[in-house]
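Quarterly update from the structural biology core.
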Amino acid sequence: MLKRKFMEVLVQWKKEKDKECLLVKGARQVGKTFIIREFAKQNYNNIIELNFATEPKFKKVFDGSLKMDEIIKKITALDSSARFEEGKTLLFLDEIQDCGDARTALKPIAEDNRFDCIASGSMLGVAYKTTRSIPVGYERQIEMFSLDFEEFLWALGYDDVRIGHIREYYENKEKIPLAINNVYTEKLREYAIVGGMPSVVDIYVKTKNFGLVHKEQEKIVASYMSDISRYLSEPEKPKTKACYNSIPEQLAKENKKFQYSVVEKGSRASKFENSLEWLRDAGLIKFCNNVKTPFFPLPAYKDSDYFKVYMTDIGILNSLYGFDMKAQLYYNTLKGPAKGGIYENIVADILIKKEIPLYYYKPGESQQEIEFLLTANGGIVPLEVKAGNRRTPSMDEFIERFDPPYALKLITGNLGVEGKKITMPLYMAMFL
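Predicted structure, tokenized:
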């Protein structure tokens, strides 16, 4: 079984909750159902699982009255094996986006408070219109992602002690022995190829076969296309697919700002912005908004008209470039602007899974650009991503102009400190 940090999130919720259901959202196939089942096995005598996608009969449970006693009566009428034991039963509502009334029922279930309830769904952001009433104050929403880089290392057999040794170099800002640095740099390239989708990681751990990895990734992308066909109207389907398929090309540009004209020549935001919103609500992408004035707090200064788009799983992104890209990444022979975009998305993948909001800095038409902006103690920290170890005039100008507490430069080389500039290997983004 793949070790997931999300298990601790579930345990913490159980300790803290007070008349509150948990709503786990995230892209399809990131492991939501599996981890909730494992959590239930370890913490409850009974689990009652209703999957509204595979067993639509359970939708009728939430027709009419939503009082807990009525829900119990209707569930047990459909499933004779269901056992409701106060304080020892978890009600698991899976694929809840297919039953809007079940989402509404989270409020009376929480108020009743006899049984714990977790709901999960892959399209919650796009299915909210089918919900009678959002249970504000009675559901805690948490987004789950595919495995992050550290979890990928766990899957490969790297324990916390080994990873802790690398963390010491990060915390002490000491140069890493070359042999160790090379190993983790290679593992990051493997992560870029495989990504974090549990089924893909499982295949890689068992076979080390990049061909089988690629086939599994193609299946996942096909399932995304199927969701687009299922949930969207006929006019929106081709537009959303075109936006999704344009992302590898968007990231291969020198200027990685998302451009609707790349999706379709001459097009504007009015035609495709709803399609991009759908992909974001489905958990497939994240926006990285431009900040023209890098002051704290960053959300106050973002420019929503200028943004980059990153995929939430780096392996899925690289699968869209085709199988031949995997060899280029593994042997580190990739050249050109596409390499920069891929390495940016590697770091974005890591930041997203650490729940760090994505912002970048590009003032107007200036050539100056900082790939990511972080916050620390009320200050703004610039973070540059370089596939090699080139000079960073944008970073130097930013330091001189805004005097940040420190600045970060992530590269494929080693760790070093020069004034306020801290240079470190790309894989150390997992410690930020």
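The longest helix spans residues 210-231.
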